[in-house]
Amino acid sequence: MSTIIYPSPVFGPIHSRRLGISLGINLMPDDGKVCTFDCIYCECGYNKDHRPHHKRPTREEVATALEYKLKQMKAEGIYPDVLTFAGNGEPTGHPEFAEIINDTIRLRNQYCPKAKVSVLSNSTFIDNPAVHNALMKVNNNILKLDTVDADYINLLDRPTGKPYDVNKIIEGMKTFNGHIIIQTMFLKGNYKGKDVNNTTEKFVNPWLEAVKDIKPEEVMVYTIERETPDQELCKATHEELDNIRDRVLTLGIPCTASY
User: Fold this and answer.
1) Which of 50, 100, 163, 239 has the maximal Cβ count within 10 Å?
2) CA 173 – CA 157 distance, rounded (Å)
């Protein structure tokens, strides 16, 4: 299968389905993947297949590379809609994440003040006070919640670090007091002989109850777009995503669906 290992620490700009013209910031090594999840749908592949040999970029390396790229884009008359922390793994796991966020906001204000700062996170470090405070500073605090079913999380997202308690994650999400965008992957197919369709009522209704309790500013529902490590996965349909989106909207919460 083909996988995507992103350059580090800056890549793009690329066009994001959900965010527009996005300049990517990858806090992981440029030759592999470091993540507290090992999702069966990850475009970067499985963790075991992409063990890095290089180190993560330092805070100084991130700031230098970002400023160079923003200067270049400004000279070309190109301005990003968003500076997005994403790439080969979980960005909030970087030991200097909070300081890097401060640097990024400073550089954004200097070179592209209209751009938003976004973080795509799997939520596993939101109980860290420094990470929490940093995420409160960004425009788009996009946190993953694929389901509230513990068995399904272990099948689909496959947490690899400290014990993952979805109820604790939900309680942590509430502490952002609405400054959170929930991002949820909906898909279908099979994995190791088990059905992974999470578009059914068994999964959607409890997830909606959690969304209602968290009270996010927005919800993003999406499905797989690129090739996945497991070959038996397939996209949720437009109709299925639209139905889920509409049910979120009835809660009075803005929601977008990306196909």
Assistant:
1) 100
2) 18
